[in-house]
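We include the pair:
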Amino acid sequence: MTEPRDVVERQLAAYNSHDIDAFAATYAEDVTVRRADGSLLQGRQALRDRYAGQFAAGRCRAEIVGRLTEGDWVVDQEIAHGLADTPVRVLVAYRVRNGLIDRVDFLG
C-alpha cells in the first residue's frame, strides 16, 4: 500500500515540474478541493482545468517548510511561488485514500 506522504510528494513533484498529467494522476476521479476563498473544485477534470494554464505558463512552484502526517492526512505548510508578486504562505491538508488524493483543504 502507498503511504499518503508518498502520494502527496509525487503530487508536489508534478506540480513543481509543471506536469499536468502526472499531477492529475495523483487525484481521485471525484476529488473535492476546498479553496481558501470558500470555493470548491469537484472532480479531477475540474482540477486539471484549473491548473492547466498556470502549468503551461511554468510559473508555479511550491516549497514545503513543514509537514505533519496522521492516518490518511498530510498537512503541508507551503510557500507558493509564482502565483502573486510575492511568495504566499499557505497550509494545505490532503486526504489520501486508496492511493489517491480524494480531498484537499486550503487552510490559509
